[in-house]
Amino acid sequence: MTRLLARAWLRLNGWHTSGTIDHKKFVLIAAPHTSNWDLIFMLAVAADMGVRVRWLGKHTLFSPPFGWLFRWLGGIPVDRRSRHNLVEQAAQHLRDADAMILAVPPEGTRKKVEYWKSGFYWIAHQAQVPIALGFLDFGGKAGGVGGYLMPTGDVSKDMDVLRAFYADKRGKHPERESLPRLREEGREAAA
User: Fold this and answer.
1) Residue 60 exposed, middle or buried by CB count within 10 Å (0-12, 13-18, 19+)
2) What is the mean pLDDT of residues 118-139?
3) Are the beta carbons of 23 and 148 closer than 8 angstroms?
4) Which residues contact 167 (CB under 8 A, 6 or more apart)?
5) Does residue 38 belong to any structural domain of this protein?
6) What is the pLDDT of residue 78?
7) Dihedral of CA 17/27/179/152: which sign?
8) Is 189 part of a structural domain of the chain?
């Protein structure tokens, strides 16, 4: 029923899904992330593709009165003000699970940022699972998975693949889009 409702809602809005789910567990990049609508569209696309995603969200979303709803929708609260070894905890959840799709918006916010947060990369690397190139393209009214990347540890090389893929994907607010790059890329060049 959820899948039919999601498909109908997407079609009414002129959207379609593309790609396939080829793995039982992976980190799903949720990009570009420029609007509160991204969560709704991501959940609808996932439901249309027949999967349930877990996602990381700002801890304040999980306060009453709607905290229960966001948890039910697959949300995992994250307190970005402090470091609690989130990467290792998320990687452990993936390693322990028989099946899990963990969606991570690498911008970490709906605003334009200089660098993506690298948690998605290191979670996948530590858990030894692929990164799915998930997207919401408001320009083309499409969402889905555009392929998979197994992180190699060569951050610059892997990010080149992501930059090429996301180059033509437009968020709801294109002026808020961020170039896919990580701080670690500069450190690699300096080393």
Assistant:
1) exposed
2) 95
3) yes
4) none
5) yes
6) 75
7) negative
8) no
Cβ contact 34:171 at 8 Å: yes
Domain count, the chain: 1
Chain-centre distance of CA 153, in angstroms? 19
Tell me, what's the pLDDT at 84? Answer: 64
Q: Examine residue 111 and state whether it is found in any structural domain, yes or no.
A: no
pTM of the full predicted structure?
A: 0.86
Residue 140's contacts (CB-CB under 8 Å, 6 or more residues apart) are 170
DSSP calls for 53-90: -EEEEEGGGGSTTTHHHHHHTTEEEE-TTS---HHHHH
Element (H, E) at 158: helix 155-166
Residue located via tokens 């307190």:
79
Sequence letter at residue 160: D
Q: For 101, phi and psi rounded to 5 degrees? A: -115, 115
